[in-house]
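Colleagues,

For the teaching module next term, I've prepared a clean inverse folding example: a structure given as tokens, and then the sequence designed for it. I'd like students to try predicting residues themselves before seeing the answer, so please don't circulate the second half yet.
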């Protein structure tokens, strides 16, 4: 098993969180990302309630984290015109 710590603060955005979550991952095929081999990844999230509330009264970093937990994929905002989905397995 591999673990990584994600520290939230007032300035944590969904883009920063996505970058942090993808650091230990490697591209498998197409839009599939995962760890080397058959390892599992555990994210330790510290201070989850600290991100700033945006004008829509949401915390985008927490919404991205929830999307990963519920659907096991996230949308890469830099690739919205092509294939924005990133499947992240074994996390």
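(Answer key — instructors only)
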């Amino acid at each position: 098993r591999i673990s990584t710590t994600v520290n939230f603060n007032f300035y944590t955005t969904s883009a920063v969180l996505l970058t942090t979550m993808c650091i230990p991952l490697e591209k498998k095929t197409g839009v599939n990302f995962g760890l080397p081999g058959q390892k599992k990844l555990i994210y330790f999230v510290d201070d989850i309630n600290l991100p700033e509330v945006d004008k829509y009264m949401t915390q985008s970093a927490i919404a991205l984290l929830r999307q990963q937990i519920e659907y096991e994929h996230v949308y890469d905002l830099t690739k919205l015109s092509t294939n924005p989905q990133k499947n992240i397995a074994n996390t």
